[in-house]
Amino acid sequence: MGLKNVNEHKNINEEFRQFKGLSFTSELFAEIKVLQEKNNWYNFFSLLLDWILIITAIAISEFSGNFIIYLISIIIIGGRMRGLDNLMHEASHKLLFKNYFLNKWIASVFIALPVMTNFNSYCTSHNNHHKYLWTEQDPDTSELKKLGLGRSTITTKTFVLKYILGSFLIKHIIKNIKDCFIRLFSKDQQSNIEYAIKLSVWFAILFIAVVFNFWTQLVLYWFIPLVTIFPIIRFWSDLADHSGLEVSHPLYSSRNNYGTWIERLILTPHHDNYHIVHHLFPYIPHFNLKKAHIILLKHPDYAQASHCTGFFNSFLPGFKSVIEDVVKKMNNVN
């Protein structure tokens, strides 16, 4: 009987495996592993979708000639710039395309270059974010801490004034223009060929815009959202991912946000709202994050992590909005 109990205990132990400080059943872990398969076609259409939405927003605004429609269009464009940014994020994990050359150069030309980001610099920065989360070596959360978005005493009213409305001062247009020029002319982690391609393409775009007289549209529909809307969206999205969660455990240092369809369109395109899943399993492509989330809900610890429904207001009872959750976590209140 004693030997039987020992064998039963051994078999039970073999059904579990430790991963990032969490105990997963082998069955659950196997379900997650299947979701790591890359898909070139899905990401090709994801990239195409961003550009179609951008072009459509421009066309509708130009056709309408209405200022309100223009404002809506640049919000959509800024949101799809965030979409491009999130696909750049996929490329940094080598998840955009299976082929290394395609992964790097499609990301460099059709994603990084238009929003004045450098592929290699982004990859280095994002690798440090994962490796050194919530330390001084993490470029993302160290910025949040400098802004006071770690652990601190704050009211909801003060938070909204300082970080939501105040984001227009934190990410003000002069700073954003300066940052764009710095990124454009920076040669950081670029070969001479890469640097020459970047400058040549932008020179060609500007030259063609002047020759064919669409430079006004280039300013109105690209440069203006690039230095106004996109930085705010990026800041709000980054704020939602980690603010107030200043701990080292990967399960409790990030936040999910199942926002409305408008929030998913603008703030968290390409499944960026499943941020806990991404930090636990960074090699799951974005299109499988929701599937992984549903599987992980079987894990009791994951189910009790920071799950929000809506950025500004929660649309489901029993769940907090991002703003409410960030304020509570900053004040160390569950």
From TrEMBL:
It is an enzyme of class 1 (oxidoreductase). It comes from the Bacteria. The keyword Oxidoreductase applies. Residues 69-296 form the Fatty acid desaturase domain. Its EC number is 1.14.19.-. The keyword Transmembrane applies. GO terms for molecular function: oxidoreductase activity. The chain crosses the membrane at residues 105-122, 154-174. Keywords: Membrane, Oxidoreductase, Transmembrane, Transmembrane helix. CDD domains: Rhizobitoxine-FADS-like. This is Fatty acid desaturase. It comes from Paenibacillus gansuensis.
